[in-house]
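Thioredoxin, pasting as requested.
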Amino acid sequence: MKPIQLFVLKNCPHCRLALRYQQELLEEHPQWREIPLRVVDEAAEAAYADTFDYYYVPCYYVDGVKLHEGHAEKADVEAVFRAAAEETINV
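Structure tokens follow.
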């Protein structure tokens, strides 16, 4: 499993939505709870956040690679977790 980093801002409605989808997905897929996950508050850890190349939050990185930036739907968050779990999506 690859580690996930999620960059957020405390009062961002898009971040709250992504976190809600994330919680729903972790309930639906309990095995994903084993994935290392770090939620970084951009305001609280500004110096660290500045070392990453993104503009919009929420922003997901998997194993150091940016996979999603900006408003996220549940399918976007699911794709991040599938990538971290190294699962393929059947289309």
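Note for the archive: The mean pLDDT is 94.
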